[in-house]
Amino acid sequence: MSGDVKKTFALKGIGVSPGVEIGKAYLYNRLDAHIPFYKLVDKSLVSEEIARFMAAVEASETQLREIKKKLSSLKELEPQYIIDVHIMILKDKEFIDNTLENIKEMGINAEWALKMTIDRYREIFERIEDAYLKGRISDIQYIGERIIANLTGKRRQTISDMGSGIIIVATDLSPADTAQMKFDKVLGFATDIGGKTSHTAIVSRAIETPAVMGLKNITQLVRTNDDMIIDGSSGLVIVNPDPEMVKRYEDKKKHYQEIKKEFLSDAHLPAMTKDGYKVEIGGNIEFIEEIPSAVSHGAEGIGLYRTEFIYINREQLPTEEDHFSSYKRVVGINGLTWSTIRTFDLGGDKFSSDPKAIKEMNPQMGLRAIRFCLKEIELFKLQLRAIIRASVYGKTRVLFPMISGIEEIREAKRIFEQLKNELIIQGVPIGNDIELGVMVEVPSAVIIADKLAKEVDFFSIGTNDLIQYLMAIDRGNERVTYLYEPLHPAVLRFIKRVVDVGHNAGIRVAMCGEMAGEPAYTMVLLGLELDELSMNPLAIPRVKKIIRETSLQESKYLLKQVLKLESTAEIRELVGNVMREKFPEVFPINAQ
C-alpha cells in the first residue's frame, strides 16, 4: 500500500480555534492511549521483538480458549462462535505476517507494528459496502487490544510517544484523552464531531492550537502520517496538499502570526471604553501550565480555574496537599489581581478516577457539579480546605457550579464556613477576603437570581451550559449545533436579567462562558454592562482592543436595537454588520 498515490482533498468543518499549522496527521483512538512507539536501536533486537510479539499472540490465544471454556456452560452458542472468530484472526497468516514485516522492515516495536496492521485492515474494511462485514473491523480491533495488553502489561503511555509536529485526528476527544497529551508536541486538532463549546475546542483555544471540528468523517479518510494543513480560522483541513498549497499556507501562517503579534503589543492596556467604562478581563484555564499564556495575553486575573482536571488520569484520588499545591500556584501569581477557583464540576462529560463512578443515561443533567459535591461531602471538604489554605497567597474567589436552588448554595456556604472556622481554630493562616460566587448556568438560577444574589458576593454566568439547558440542546451533538446560538433573544434576555438583578443587589456580575471570548459579541456584552469578562487567553487581546475602541453609550444603543428584534437571524445580521463596519481589522471576512 506504500506505493499508493495520495490524493489531495479538503474538508470543511467548524473553526473553533484560530491559526494555521502544517504537519503530519495522527489518527487517534483510545486504543492508542497505551501503545508505546520506539525504534529498535540495534538490528539484533528485531528477532527479540518478533519473539515477544509471538509470545503475546500465544498468550492471547490461551486466554481466549480459557474464556471459551467458561462459556461452554451457557446454552447460547453465539458467544462461543465470537471467540472462535477471534482465535481464527489470531491464527490468520496474513495478519501475523503483516505485523512481522512491519517489525523487520521499519525496525519498530511490536505494539506499533501491530497498530499499523490494524490501521491497514481498517482502511480496507471502510471500502466494503456491506454494513455487517464493515462492522467486523471491531473483531480485529478487539484482538489488537488483547495482544497489546499482553505486550505492554496494560502499561499506559501517552500520545506524546508519537513524536512532535502532529495534528490529532479523532472522532472526538474526552477530557481524559487530552489530559494525556503533551501539548507542545501537538500542532492541531481535527475531529468528526463537536463544536465551539466542546471540551476539545476549549482546550485548543486555551493552548493556542488550531482546531477544526464537525468534519463528519475525517477519521475514515485520513491515515496516520498523511501530510495535513489545518486552518482553524476558516474551518478548513487539507490532506496531502501539493507544494503550491503548502507554500500558500506557510504565507498565511506567517501573516496570522504577524497580526497576532500586533494585537499582543497592546494586550496589557486596560479594557476601558472611550467614555471611561472599565471591564475586568480574566483568563479561563484548565491547567497550571496555561497561566503564562494568560498573563502574556493581558489577563488581569484568573476568571475561571476548572479544577476537575486535577482528578483526571490519576491512579488514586488527589490528596488535600495535591489540591493545595495547585491552588497556591494559581492564586500567588505576580501581576494578576484575583483568581476564581471553581469547585470541581465532575460528572457530565468529565471523568474522575473514582472506580465507583456510575455511567448515567443523561449525564449532563445528572449527578454532576454541586450535586456531586454535596453527595460526596468528604471530597468536597478536602477541596475547600485546600482552597481556603491557598487563599492566604492572593485574592481568591470561590465559584460553585450548577446551582439550581437556594438550598444548594446555603449548604455549600455552611460547609465552607465550618471548614474556615476549623482552620482558624487550628491556627492555619488563611486569606481574610475570600469571595463566594454562584455560577449561573441553569435556567432556574436565572429565575431566582434575586434570591441567590442575597447569598453570595458575585455571579459568574456560564453561557456554555446556560444556552444548552435554555435551548434544550446537546452542545456535543453536531446535528443540533445550529441551535446553539448565543445571540438568541431568549439568551440575551436571560443574561440581562442576571446582570440587572445582580447590580440591584450590589454584587458584581461576570461572564466566564465561551460567549465572553467571542469578539463578535463584545459590544453586546458591553451594552449589558457586565463587570467582568473571562475567556480563553487567546481571545483577550482582540476583546480588549474592541472595548478600548468603542464606548458604553454606543454599546448600549446597539443592545437596545438588538432587543427590539424578534429572530436570531436578524440579530446576527445587525451585530455582524456593526462589528465589520466598526472593526474591519478584527473582522476582515465575517463576524460569525
Keywords:
3 domains; 8-stranded parallel beta barrel; globular; 592 residues; TIM Barrel; Glucose Oxidase, domain 1; alpha/beta; 8-stranded mixed β-sheet; single chain; Enzyme I, Chain A, domain 2; 45% helix; 16 strands
Assign the CATH topology of the largest domain: TIM Barrel
The CATH class of the largest domain is identified as Alpha Beta
- The helix-and-strand class reads alpha/beta
Q: What Rg, in angstroms, do the CA atoms define?
A: 26 Å
Arithmetic mean of pLDDT: 85
Proportion of residues in helical segments: 40-55%
Tally of domains: 3
Residue fraction in strands: 5-15%
Amino- and carboxy-terminal Cα gap: 42 Å
CATH architecture name of the largest domain = Alpha-Beta Barrel
- Gross morphology is globular
Please report the total strand number as a whole number: 16
What is the quaternary state of this protein? single chain
What are the SSEs and their pairings?
Elements: E1 9-12, E2 14-17, E3 20-27, H1 44-71, H2 78-91, H3 93-106, H4 110-126, H5 131-134, H6 137-152, E4 166-170, H7 175-179, E5 186-191, H8 199-206, E6 211-213, H9 218-221, E7 227-231, E8 236-239, H10 243-265, E9 280-285, H11 291-296, E10 301-306, H12 320-331, E11 339-342, H13 369-375, H14 377-390, E12 396-400, H15 406-425, E13 435-440, H16 443-447, H17 449-452, E14 458-461, H18 463-471, H19 489-504, E15 508-511, H20 522-527, E16 532-535, H21 540-548, H22 552-564, H23 568-582
Parallel strand pairs: 3-4, 4-5, 5-6, 9-10, 9-16, 10-11, 11-12, 12-13, 13-14, 14-15, 15-16
Antiparallel strand pairs: 1-8, 2-6, 3-7, 7-8
